[in-house]
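seq as requested:
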Amino acid sequence: MAIISERLVFRPYNDGDFEFLMSLLSDPEVVRYIGNGKTRDRNGGKDFLNWIYNTYEFCEDMGLMVLVNKEDNTLIGHAGLVPQTIDGNKEIEIGYWISRKYWGKGYATESAKALLKYGNKQFDRQRFIALIQPNNFTSQKVAIKLGMEIDKKIILGGKDVNVYATK
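struct tokens:
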């Protein structure tokens, strides 16, 4: 998957990125609105990395990718097109996590817009979703900037989740 935005290069995870992944998974603020909202230990981190690798095997154009700042090669988060099944329907989620020290700099919006553009072209599809918990106002703003609206409300992993979708 070759995705490049104004400031970012998207690249697949590799085993050398494990400590960076753990920095995301172990930060309570980063994972606050992800899944069950709980941090993960190293075993949970290995399971998560394996899940990422399995997504790559499912489809080479999908999965969470490391976001690398073009200017200085700093790892600032990850984002990707993630296969989801919602109410029995196969969907593609635009997902993004940004390391806390890079919050408020527009990286989530930049990466999400790049993924939407890539997904439109690569999959010849207009509908993409974002799974966002109701109190995650920052991610809601990103979804709205992509032209998404709330499509429905579901329970996922015991949490209320709004399914935002492109029109």
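The chain has a mean pLDDT of 96.
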